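ok so for the tutorial part 2 we go from a plain amino acid sequence to predicted C-alpha cells. step 1 is just haveing the sequence, like this:
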Amino acid sequence: MRLSIFSFIMTISFLLVGCSEEGNTNEAKQENKTKDSNVEVVKDEKETLVNEKNFKDLPDIPQNEVDIIHQRPGVYANKEVLGDEVEKQVIEHIKDLPPLPEKPSEEEYDKYFQYVYSLAANDFPDPDDLVKKWEFSMYGSPEMENPKFKFKENYNVEIILDSSGSMNAKVGDKTQMELAKEAINDFVSNLPEDVNVSLRVYGHKGTGDESDKEKSCSSIEQVYGFDQYNQDSFSNAINQFKPSGWTPIAESLKQSFESFKEYDKESNTNLIYLVSDGIETCDGDPVAVAKEFSGSNVSPIINVIGFNVDSKAQEQLKQVAESSDGIYSTVTNKDQLTEEFDRAQNILERWESWKKDAIRDADAQRVDNSFDILGFSNDWNAIERDQSLRVSYLLTILREQGKINFEQRDELKKRASTVRDLIDAALDEILEDLKSMNETEIESLKEEIKNKYKTEVE
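step 2 — the prediction. this is what the C-alpha cells look like for a chain of 458 residues:
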C-alpha cells in the first residue's frame, strides 16, 4: 500500500516538472518570436523609409546640362530660407519628414538629398530662349528666311495684360500690377508714332470666388486701340482697372484674333505681348488657341512674359509662346519686365529706320549677342550660387530640427558639391556653343541649339 502511494506521488511530481518545463519552453519560444517580430519591424521600417510619402514623385537630380535647363523650380526657389517668415514655413514643411536612420544606406542618402534639392532648385536660363531673342533682335533683316520675321509696311502691337487677383501680390513696395503698368506705359510712350497700339485686359471684373467665375472669365476688354499712341487716352485706359478676378488667357487670345483679322501678314508685322502671373483658370486651352492664331493669315508673334510664375504656369505660358515662334521670358521685378519691352522697342526703332532705307549692321548684332552671352553667364552663376546657398541652409535647418546629424549633413553636402560641379561644367559647354553659334547664320544657329537643348527633352 505504501509502495502504491509512493509511486502515485512520484508520478504526479514528474508530470508537474514536465508541465513546468514545457511552459518555460513555450514562454521562451514566445519571447524569441516577439524579439524576431521586433527585429522584422525594424527591418521593414528601414526598407520602407525611402517609400515615405515625402519622398514620392520627386523630380530626378539633374545628370547633364539638358536636365539642369529643364529642372522644375523648387518650392523655395528664389527665396531666402533663413529669413524669419520663410524659415517658419520650411520648419512646418518638414515637420513630418522622417529623420535619417543612424546609419543610412546610400539609397537613403540619395533620396534625402533628392528631397532637399526639390525644395531648393532654381530655374536656370534656357539657351534656346536666348537664341530666340537673337532671332527676334534680327527681326526685319532681309537675311531672315521666315517671312514672319521680316518688316512689313505696317506695324501693330497689342499688349494683353493679366488683371486677375494674384496681380495684387507685392514686389517690394508695389504690386505686380503697378509695376506692369509702369513698364507698359514706358514702352508705348516711346513707340514710333506710326505704330498701331492696342491694350487688352482680362480678370479685372468680379472676384476670385467660385461664384464670380463665369462673370470674371467672360470679362475681357480691349481698353485701347488699335490706334496710334496718345498719352492722355492711353493713361486713362490703363488706369481704369484693378486686379480682382480669374485668368481667361485662351478667350483673351480668341478675342485678340478677331481684332487682328483686318491686319493680314502680307502687309502687316503683328506683335503681341502677353503679360501674366499665372496659368489659365477659366477652363480654356490657350496653347491650342495660340497655334490657331499663329497659323492664320494674321500670323502674329506672341511673346509671353511670366511675372513671378510657378513651374506649372511657366510650362503652359512657354508653350503659348513657342506655338507662334515667340519668346517666353520669366521676370521677377520691374527692371526685368522693362528689359523685355526694351528689346521690342529697339526692333521698332529699327523698323522706323528700315522705312528710311537704313540697314542693320550684322557685326553690331554679333557684338550685341556677345553681351547677351555675358549676361547669360552672369545670370547662370548667380542662380547657381543662390541655389547652392539654399541647399546648405536647408541642410542646416534639417540638422537643427533633428532630422539629420552633423556627419549626415556633411555627406549630403558632398552630393550638393557634385551637382554644383555639373552645373559649372554645363555652363562652360553652353557658353562654348553660344559663342560658336554667334558666328553663324541666325537660322543655322537657331536650328543647332534647338536640336541640342530642346528636342532631347520632347
